[in-house]
Specification:
Elements lengths: L1 H13 L6 E3 L17 E4 L3 E8 L2 E8 L7 E10 L2 E8 L11 E7 L3 E6 L3 H10 L2 E4 L2 E4 L3 H11 L11 E5 L1
Parallel strand pairs: 1-10
Antiparallel strand pairs: 2-3, 2-11, 3-4, 4-5, 5-6, 6-7, 7-8, 8-11, 9-10
């Protein structure tokens, strides 16, 4: 049992994107999931190419290196709104029994030509998490273990607050 927990924790820390805040439960509740017709497509910056496809009530996202160095990554995502914020609940894709598929919230702004995104992450928000959600600190990351309904309530309250999001959004251009 101890080895399984150690393997799951190590895998969790290695496969969760760039956010300091991750969850074992979904951020996007099924009853609030939406589709944004502007999101599917091919997006790129100098380093990576993002292929976003609509699938069922969510999306598949492949992140490919723009050059020959790097590793391709695959995700599934569901989109919902918290106030005026559109938030993707991003989860690594795949059926690896040794990888815990954690959820990472990503705020997006999408229009015809650009996709900007930023991760849920700030000192202010970590303080809100510690005050209102069950969490555990793991190697400079905060693993949120609260039930999904509690996460949804939390993001509906804080998700539209600009203090909740990490710096300037990254920008991608439609290809």
């Amino acid at each position: 049992m101890r080895l399984s927990l150690l393997m799951a924790t190590a895998t969790l820390l290695g496969c969760t994107g760039c956010s300091d805040l991750i969850s074992v439960n979904a951020f996007a509740p099924d009853n609030l999931v939406i589709q944004d017709a502007a999101l599917p497509g091919i997006w790129a910056d100098d380093d990576q190419i993002y292929v976003v496809k609509a699938k069922d009530d969510g999306y598949t996202i492949a992140v490919l290196p723009a050059k020959d160095n790097g590793t391709a990554l695959s995700f599934t995502a569901k989109l919902f709104r918290a106030g005026n914020a559109e938030i993707l609940d991003l989860v690594p894709a795949g059926d690896d029994a040794f990888r815990l598929a954690v959820h990472t919230p990503v705020r997006i702004w999408v229009d015809e030509h650009t996709l900007r995104f930023t991760y849920l992450d700030s000192k202010w928000l970590r303080e809100q998490v510690r005050a209102g959600l069950t969490s555990q600190e793991l190697n400079k990351r905060t693993l949120i273990t609260s039930p999904a309904a509690t996460l949804t309530r939390f993001l509906l309250i804080h998700g539209g607050d600009d203090r909740a999001w990490e710096g300037d959004p990254a920008g991608l251009v439609r290809q």
